[in-house]
Write a structure and sequence with these properties.
The protein has 14 helices and 21 strands. It is of the alpha/beta class. The chain has a 9-stranded mixed beta sheet, with helices on both faces. Strands 1-3-4-5-6-2 form a 6-stranded mixed beta sheet. Helix 5 links the parallel strand 8 and strand 9. Helix 13 packs across helix 14. The longest helix has 17 residues.
Amino acid sequence: MRISLATPMQEIGTLAAALGSVPVAKGTPPLKIGGMATHTKELKAGDVFVAMRGARCNGNDFILEALARGAVAVLTEEELPPLFGNYWVLRVQNVEGALLLAAAARRRLAKAKVVAVSGSTGKTTVKEIIASVLLEAGTVRKSEGNFNSSIGMPLSLLQMEDADHFVLEVGINRAGEMEPLARVLAPELAVLTNVGSAHIGHFADARELLLEKLKLAAGQRGEDVLLLADSIPRDACGDIPSRMMRIGTSEGADFQLKNIINSKKGVSADLWHGGCRVEGLCWHIPGSIGSSCLAIGGAVGMLFGLSGEAIRAGLLHAAQHTPRMKMLEIAGRHVIDDTYNASPEAMIAALETLAYLAKGERAAVLGDIGELGAFANSLHDAVGECAAHSGISQLFTYGNYSEVMAEGALRGGMPAQCVHAFPFGGEQALVARLLKKVPRGAAVLFKASRKTALERVIEVLGRER
């Protein structure tokens, strides 16, 4: 990962102080820094090379290469031997902790209102929606892609030039990760999209995962807002320092969706907040996925005082720039490519969306869901059972848990001749079976976790005529 540093962080003294380091000059290095890079291949002349200790390699082993590529500073935990060149040594006790310190310094210097987005699914899409809606109210900087980790989030913040609003995505997969990130961001608005089973394999149970996600509010003050789904149990929220406001369809929701209409063109609804309402909100993906996007985008717009016209315009702009549910025509079938990522809940929601998008014959190709740990078998089995009740005519499962999902579908009542399991490496066989079982003109959903690389099956299908 590489970023260009925001202007206030480019002076070596400012940057070093923010990192908690005393800069040591070797030779005559420049006083201005251009950016930061964690990999030498992405590094540009004038950058800081961030020497991370990874699970598979140690960034300190690549410092000579970084200097040869034009690095003018090295952020490291190690004492370096004398090396040829003109560069700064920024030595710290812990590189990851130093980046968080620097990000906190950038946050304090900025006048922007910060919006932090987290949740089990939909973080990147919701971040894009919020950024688009807030563009109707002023200038916006947002984190790129899904840079949301304990490394990606602080680097995202360090590259943000001044604006009216900063919108950042926060992702965690282990206990203890959320609070340090939340305290750095200290968001005026924290948005928790949902809490499902994503990454549950790294937690003792669902409650521990939920409590970790709720720590998104840890850096907030009393006047700040935590916006969360009304499906999240109230008794789990405990002592939240900020104002909790809920979104959903229940009567108790602070932002309540009404008059929801789903069709193959998407979903439309009205959003009520107190005595105010915004009518005619639209999103191009139907079902619970689209409804959640409408509710969050609309609620954020209302909290920032935007008109209904501005909120609708923001949602329309966001819909044109989201990567989810790509519609493709391949081998005579209507392919819905949602291979970007998955959790059990997201997979079930995608099957619901498929039912709205395609009223004719439809099928699904579902791959492994990662990071479920000891819950992997039961959750894959549950997804298979839900698939059996989703109205699809054929189910193709792929990966290490293909047989488990298939067993769930069979137990759910799906006929054996309609359930097909394939291991990794079985892409050709899967496509051959799909072409035989799924007629031309049918709709086919493809969904799995990113590491499953289910797009390989789509690529094989694309070579067919």
